[in-house]
Design brief:
single chain
């Protein structure tokens, strides 16, 4: 009875990823008893911590904001001083979440207007930034891919390749590749939810194979099961760095660069950096996980049969899937054409300028997305590829509001002179000769640690403007530090609460919390030390010249 009640409470009232945990608890599988106790203990500890965190933030945020407002601060304009107090409140509430994060993102601009910092049109103009429509178009395209099963088709296609077969090491690699490549275009949460049952099916094949040979195994203590689940979760986060729309921190930092410094980074340029970062992150994760959680067999009997059965269930390509693929490819082509034009004609060519004026990234995204409502599946019945209801279910409005709120606060910091004051203060605090290595290292670690404890979107909104203004104040290009912040914010691998993919796979019961922390620490800091700093400093500064 208690388990049934817990299941109902999880499904009705708790976030999406928690339903996986409640599903396993509801099954009543005896092998889950140990995991159930650990998961419930962790869940209770999380809830107790969250309650204290939100209570402290609810009262501490306004109190600290008032203290900042009443404190005399030299070098700030009256508007900048008031904005600093508002930023204090917003930052604390983003971290502690006493109210939903999107609500906090609206509170900041609203208070800025009420206190006379800026006019209303200036405070809320950021919510119509083209970057938001780039993200919106990406959400709609991703939703169509999920509705019509294109993401599953790709994942099963990759897993069914002849080089994968039934080899556990290659299955491990293929699962990670499928998750990483999908999450470059689809949200990491949706990708994890798609890959989760695939991994469960593969692990069931392993259990059945051992059972047929007279050997019973407990998958909750089986190293390979832990590694496969962690590889799935980590790859979903790693793949997000591939494209600007892969994960919110990417597009947030691009928006800050455009708003604060008037530096525009194209979709193609980001992908050249994102691809290298994704490959490097993926190799690190694969090497660490395959070493820590090796398979003890050379072949998984039944794995290829399981994949073939899943492919058969998808059936033949239908009109909706073809339409979705066409719309997606049109958007991708429009996104990458400027890169090839730049290579062929130079970055100052008139044809490139005309193309960027007519088909900027946001228009490419919205063009591909809008085609989904225009290309019919059955014209006689007036059925089109995507319905408006389906599209609305796919748009993460909270993320768009949070993104707009972050851009609004960043823009106001620049207009009121607060960004310069903050940048100068950070530069003085660091001291010595301006060092891009020190700056990138500091903000990479800050973005990583903050994203482990709160939303990586909120973490990027807080760290991003500080990183850019500090770089400008020190006379350093803000591009390397901006890319470093975006990449580091995607490295939340230590805790189930760090990212939704972590929470989803943790609910399987195959990952002890200590194992996730242990492996997460390794990959997080190896990723920063061996990828972010050298990649961003040497590659990006080489591109900038």
């Amino acid at each position: 009875t208690d388990l049934k009640f817990l299941h109902i409470m999880h499904v009705k009232f708790l976030p999406f990823q928690d339903s996986y945990l409640s599903y396993f608890l509801f099954k009543g599988d005896d092998s889950m008893d140990k995991m159930s106790k650990e998961a419930l203990a962790v869940k209770r500890a999380e809830q107790a911590f969250d309650r204290k965190r939100r209570t402290i933030g609810l009262f501490g945020g306004p109190l600290l904001a008032i203290i900042v407002l009443l404190t005399s601060i030299t070098g700030l304009t009256p508007e900048g001083h008031k904005l600093l107090a508002i930023m204090t409140l917003v930052a604390i509430w983003w971290i502690t979440e006493p109210v939903p994060i999107p609500v906090t993102s609206l509170i900041g601009p609203t208070l800025a207007v009420m206190t006379g910092v800026v006019a209303a049109k200036d405070a809320f103009s950021a919510f119509a930034n083209p970057m938001i429509f780039l993200f919106m178009g990406g959400f709609i395209l991703a939703k169509a891919m999920m509705v019509h099963g294109l993401d599953k088709r790709f994942a099963y296609w990759l897993l069914s390749r002849s080089w994968v077969g039934s080899n556990p090491k290659r299955i491990f690699l293929a699962v990670g590749l499928a998750a990483a490549l999908c999450s470059g275009w689809v949200s990491n949460t949706a990708t994890a939810a798609m890959m989760f049952p695939i991994c469960l099916g593969l692990l069931t094949s392993i259990k059945d194979m051992f059972a047929n040979s007279g050997r019973e195994i407990d998958l909750h203590e089986y190293k390979y099961a832990t590694g496969l689940m962690l590889m799935t979760a980590y790859s979903c986060s790693i793949g997000g760095v591939l494209t600007p729309i892969g994960t919110p921190p990417n597009i947030i930092m691009l928006g800050f660069l455009d708003t604060i410094t008037n530096i525009h980074i194209s979709f193609f340029e980001w992908m050249t950096w994102g691809f290298i970062a994704m490959v490097a992150y993926f190799i690190i994760a694969y090497l660490v996980l395959s070493h820590m959680f090796p398979a003890d067999v050379d072949r998984i009997e039944g794995a290829d049969t399981f994949i073939k059965a899943r492919i058969a269930e998808l059936g033949k390509w239908n009109r909706a899937q073809i339409n979705t693929l066409i719309s997606f490819l049109i958007a991708v082509i429009l996104w990458v054409v400027p890169g090839f034009l730049s290579i062929a004609y130079g970055s100052d060519a008139d044809i490139l300028k005309m193309y960027n004026r007519l088909f900027p990234e946001a228009i490419a995204a919205m063009g591909g997305a809008l085609l989904l409502f225009l290309i019919p599946i059955d014209f006689k019945e007036r059925k089109f590829t995507l319905t408006w209801k389906e599209a609305m279910d796919g748009i993460e409005w909270g993320t768009l509001i949070l993104f707009g709120g972050g851009l609004a606060m960043g823009g106001m910091m620049y207009k009121t002179g607060l960004s310069k004051w903050v940048g100068d203060s950070i530069a003085n605090l660091i001291g010595g000769e301006p060092s891009i290595v020190v700056l990138v290292a500091i903000f990479s670690v800050l973005a990583l640690l903050l994203s482990e404890l709160t939303s990586h979107t909120a973490a990027t909104n807080m760290i991003g403007p500080l990183a850019i203004t500090a770089a400008v104040s020190m006379g350093i290009s803000p591009i390397p530090v901006s890319i470093a912040v975006a990449l580091s914010a995607s490295l939340g691998f230590m805790l189930p609460v760090s990212t939704p993919p972590n929470a989803i796979v943790y609910a399987s019961g195959y990952i002890p919390i200590t194992k996730m922390i242990h492996t997460g620490v390794f990959i997080d800091f190896i990723g920063i030390a061996c990828v972010t700093i050298p990649l961003v400093i040497y590659f990006v500064t080489w591109v900038v010249g």
